[in-house]
Design a protein that fits this description.
By secondary structure, the chain is of the alpha/beta class. The protein is built from nine helices and seven strands. The termini are far apart. It comes from Mycobacterium talmoniae.
């Protein structure tokens, strides 16, 4: 029996990157997956987002693990559409046990449009609220809610270390900080119902979000058109451990732990998968 055998998980941003990795790992451990993604670009986000064929590939990978996938193209900014997608998935599988609020964008462009601030918040914060709130009516004792935060939630600003990420970066950092606070307070509210709520805060992660022109420019503002190789020289500056980034599977392992009954008494936690990034940014201040 797998670690999440018989469970059903809804995952936003499931078409690629961390979301796809979470879907695949949870399926490998026995879960059926409701996979949701917008599958289209957002104007202020200066790198391409997933496409419908990416979501189809996530479903294929889930089914390759012997589990079922229900896919829906829905924007996490649209709670009505998102709720309809979740309801349809639950109608197919009969119940919902795990919510993984993973969808996110990083419109990190120095001097970018102010709309990028709003778009980052709408996806990275409101999108989390929408997925969780649209799922609540389906949850029961033993359910687990997992939100994707960021090391940015613990940094003073998105300009830390000389990174100028513009209005979108400021919105991204704000959204992740509020997600952390939300997880804490929601965990308190849902604990009497034996529903757990936790956040995972990754550092740089090897996904299309990281490997994008805006991210390369943010890390290498000294170059007019930095390449991946140029940016990878700067990526390790965020971590204490000598690596440029973690892998999606490093986050998925923690998602699996939090989704499983092994973590049945773990709630309200802010868990960093950051290769020591927090240690570099924040001096020790005592317990």
């Amino acid at each position: 029996m797998g670690k999440v055998a018989g469970k059903v998980a809804v995952i936003s941003g499931a078409a690629r990157g961390q979301g796809r990795s979470h879907a695949r790992m949870l399926a490998a451990e026995g879960a059926d997956i409701i996979a949701v993604d917008v599958c289209q670009d957002i104007a202020t986000n200066d790198y391409p987002l997933a496409r419908p064929e990416d979501l189809d590939e996530t479903a294929r990978l889930v089914e390759k693990e012997g589990r079922s996938a229900f896919t829906a193209i829905a924007d996490v900014r649209d709670r009505v559409a998102l709720a309809a997608a979740i309801d349809a998935g639950v109608a197919q599988f009969g119940h919902l046990d795990v919510v993984v609020a993973n969808a996110g964008i990083a419109p990190l462009t120095a001097g970018g449009p102010t709309q990028a601030f709003a778009d980052a918040i709408d996806v990275d914060l409101i999108g989390v609220l929408n997925l969780v709130h649209a799922s609540l009516k389906h949850l029961h004792a033993g359910a687990s809610i997992i939100a994707t935060g960021s090391l940015a939630a613990f940094l003073a600003s998105q300009n830390t270390g000389g990174i100028d990420a513009g209005p979108g970066g400021a919105g991204y950092g704000f959204a992740k900080q509020v997600v952390a606070h939300y997880v804490n307070d929601l965990a308190l509210a849902l604990a009497p119902n034996n529903i757990r709520v936790n956040a995972i805060h990754p550092t740089n992660c090897n996904t299309p979000m990281l490997h994008s022109r805006p991210m390369y420019r943010a890390f290498r503002p000294d170059l007019p058109n930095p390449s991946r190789a140029d940016a990878e020289l700067a990526f390790p500056a965020l971590q204490v451990m000598p690596i440029p980034y973690i892998e999606p599977e490093d986050v998925s392992e923690l998602v699996l732990f939090l989704a499983s009954d092994v973590s049945r008494y773990v709630t309200g936690q802010q868990i960093r998968v950051d290769a020591g990034g927090f240690l570099r940014a924040k001096p020790w201040s005592g317990p």
